[in-house]
Amino acid sequence: MSYLLIFLLISFIVSSVGWYYFIYFFSIGYGLSISALSVATAAMFWSEMSLPVAILCCVLFVYGIRLALYLFIRERKSASYKKILYQPENTTHKPMFVMFMIWISCALLYVGQMSPAIFYLNNLKENMAVNEVWAWIGAVLATMGVAIEMIADAQKSAAKKVNAHRYVDTGLYRIVRCPNYFGEVLMWTGSFVICFGACCSVWQWVVASLGYIGIVYVMFSGARRLELRQTEVYGSMPEFQAYIKRTPLILPFLPIYSVARHTWLKG
Predict the structure, then answer these.
(1) Pairwise CA distance, residues 257 & 267, whole Å
(2) Tens of pLDDT along 34-57?
(3) Helix, coil or strand: residue 217
């Protein structure tokens, strides 16, 4: 278990960008932490690295760098995003204890998310009978997730250039209202399923499960915030009401159309 402390230290160091502005703990710091942990995983277990896990690490590295750059550029260029990012409740000074708790929680979550690949390679190093089939399944799902997220972001950007004041319901947005969040859930599902072939111990399952549950919660929390914001902006439009009644919020083909009333998702 001591090897996890190295990854936790890396997560603490990289996510400390949040001390500049606390939102960065779970935005830019999130992306940079995932990229750094992917590199650290490959470096620490290079001699045990298998092709599917190498693909997964590459996918997560690209995802993290892309996310951090996307958020950084968006903050600089989008006035509407900057208005949301720097709204009064975000810029209010946070007590030191709260800042530390956010920092600790984020660092632990990011390590938990990366832990399936870490456990797989560590257990392989310990000569356990790991199953590479699950690693391949995980790598494929994660790659699909990142691809969906990238396509969704590109489609949204293109649609907003045509009409910046209309909600997006074209492309992947015809199938699900938050395809980028769905892509991320799929990506981390791919990471998590590696545990099924990693000969994980009970405590390893606990760590990986907490990481997976944590990020799924974050995605649904983000979808709830988006739902509330879109309802406030577009709620009076009959065509928008028809769109949200027929289009699932975050998981395609599952009839979950709203989570607005679930205040426990408030992040």
Answers:
(1) 19
(2) 999 999 999 999 998 999 999 999
(3) helix
What pLDDT, in 10s, does the model give residues 71-80? 888 777 665 5
Distance CA 3, CA 170 (A): 46
Residues in the chain, total: 267
- Please name which of 9, 40, 213, 203 lies closest in space to residue 121, comparing C-alpha atoms: 40
What's the whole-number mean pLDDT along residues 21-33? 89
d(CA 199, CA 195): 7
- Alpha-carbon dihedral of residues 134, 193, 64, 17, nearest 10 degrees? -140
Instruction: Cite the DSSP H helix spans in 16-95.
Output: 28-44, 51-77, 79-85, 88-91
pLDDT tops 60 at residue 111: yes
Tokens of 51: 């092709």
| C-alpha distances in Å from residue 164, one per residue of 149, 186, 242 | 20, 28, 20
Minimal CA–CA distance to 188: which of 67, 49, 25?
Answer: 67
Phi, psi of 266 (to 5 degrees): -65, 120
Contact 231, 177 (CB under 8 A): no
Q: Which residues of 85-124 are buried (b: 16+ CB within 10 A; e: fewer)?
A: beeeeeeeeeeeeeeeebbeebbbbbbbbbbbbbbbbbbb
